[in-house]
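Structure ticket #2291
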Amino acid sequence: MLKGLKKVMISGVEVLPIVEGGKGVAVSDGVSSGAFAEAGAVGTFSGVNCKLIDDNGNYIPLVYKGKTRIEKHRELIEYSIKAAISQAKIAWNKSKGKGRIHINVLWEMAACQEILHGVLEKTKGIVHGVTCGAGMPYKLAEIAAKYKVHYYPIVSSMRAMRALWKRSYEKNKEWLGGVVYEDPWLAGGHNGLSNSENPRQPEDPYPRVAELRKFMNEVGLHDTPIVMAGGVWYLRDWSHWLDNPEIGPIVFQYGTRPIVTKESPVSDEWKKKLLNLEKGDVFLNNFSPTGFYSSAVNNDYIRELDARGHRQIAYRTAPDNHLATPLALGPRGREVFVTPEDREKAEDWIAQGFTEGLKTPDDTLVFVTPEKAAEIRKDQVDCMGCLSHCRFSNWKDHDDYTTGKRPDPRSFCIQKTLQDIGIDHGDIDHNLMFSGHNAYKFRDDPFYKDGYIPSVKELVERIIAGD
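Resolution: structure written out below.
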């Protein structure tokens, strides 16, 4: 084991200071998380719309019977609870009672609180901790304490943790198992960038984590570990964090490297793609229907979204002092008003086949092909309410079930694409492929020479040795 690396108390048991990142839909499941726990570390399965596996090991897909969004939303919740319970049992059996098993959820996923209650009620003694990010999970502490499991909020700044502590966590500090600091520039999936932070100017995590530790010490959390997530590859590069009073007890979370393991449930094509990425192939984008920035592989799916946003102009339904040039759209020639320069752009796009002008919530038009327009409209109609708020479909999971804004065609149905690439092993070039920014290191890491794919046990041994 790397000098200075020590076991840490996590969820009531001393384990290796290694945590599997709880990746989204079907990318971290019971098999992969159980393998991490079996290796003496912390395994984390995703509780976000995971696969339901019956007692015979068969996958039971969700087939919607409801006709409305609300009806499908209720079906999704019920399925999600059953599916997460099935994955927890798989993880527990795989772990053979070793390590720890955590569930990862997104606070911005639909009915997060209801799903957590439903899962934790039926997995006592099996799930030891709850990791939660993508939002400000104030009620996470209350829910975890009710079921006597530890909770691990994901934050990207001391300010976020301070707000959570003062509003809620101080009352349930007994069950605060650790604080996950997720680098908002380098982590995969959704990123916690604030409005004051520049997505193109990454900051050194050390002073930000030291600031977090300083606050935690001030409120009596000296022994509560910080989990460093995002941008971690070789632990030898982090040796100055070990036995460091400015950092305190430290654990390292791995999200991207576990994707390329024998136990990982993703397709072989996905694994091969990660093994051959170059630096810069993963970048931050702002297309997600959640409204958060996210990090994904730059493939055809992302490029189409990017191009879609560039074919965009402002419009008015009635002329004003700035937008007064008429532009006829569609077979009926409905008229909107734009600038003279933008009419030239629009006519050029239309001539290229991007004949459909879709309205956005920001009073702009986005030009797409008729086929893409039909796909977007169908996906919006098919919305099953997987998020608490969705800018793509204008769904909201409470009150009047709408955000009150126009659906945004510049985004996409995240449930559809993540299900396709994760569960159905769909086309990796035409689906959203989340990844951490360090994925390019697969290519040069000698551990993966000639496309070698290790077991989770081999990966954990490699990591704790410093490599």
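Closing remark: The radius of gyration is 23 Å.
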